[in-house]
Specification:
Strand content: under 5%
Number of helices: 6
CATH superfamily: TspO/MBR protein
Distance between the termini: 52 Å
Order of helices and strands: HHHHHH
Length: 156
């Protein structure tokens, strides 16, 4: 029973953070964001929700694996600390970019997010190869989002 509750919590946390960020994002997608110049490689708006949902689920599963691994407490705490830090940066990016309409400041945020995801991957790799692999699509997508953020900032 303990593992089922942990699994649900591990997946619910990033999905909830994503849902709240998505709410603030949706307020701007039809407003400010629809008016900004975007690069030719900007995906259609409908792509983002399913991609992020899948990524949040994969992040949650990766966290669940780390949470349940029998490993040194200090190592696990470091890995979990970086995981939570990147979740906070992930959430704040949406607020800064979409809600505050500040793509330049959001670029700084997303660069920090990339670094924090890389650090999370590093610490997860010391505990579980599977958890590490589950985060690879996430860092790839956020790297693409960083290029997209830069292009939007530059074009506007």
């Amino acid at each position: 029973m303990k593992n089922i509750i942990r699994f649900i919590l591990a997946i619910a946390l990033p999905l909830t953070i994503g849902a709240v960020a998505g709410f603030f994002t949706s307020l701007s997608v039809k407003g400010w964001y629809s008016t900004v110049n975007k690069p030719s490689f900007n995906p259609p708006d409908w792509v983002f929700a399913p991609v992020w949902t899948l990524l949040y689920i994969m992040m949650g599963i990766a966290f669940y694996i780390i949470w349940n691994k029998d490993t040194a407490k200090l190592l696990k705490r470091k890995a979990m600390l970086f995981y939570f830090a990147q979740l906070i940066l992930n959430f704040t990016w949406s607020l800064v970019f979409f809600y505050a309409e500040k793509p330049g400041l959001a670029l700084v945020n997303i660069l920090l997010l990339c670094c924090m995801i890389a650090a999370t991957i590093y610490w997860f790799s010391k505990i579980s190869t599977t958890a590490t692999r589950l985060l690879i699509p996430y860092i790839l997508w956020v790297s693409f989002a960083t290029v997209l953020n830069f292009a939007i900032w530059k074009l506007n």
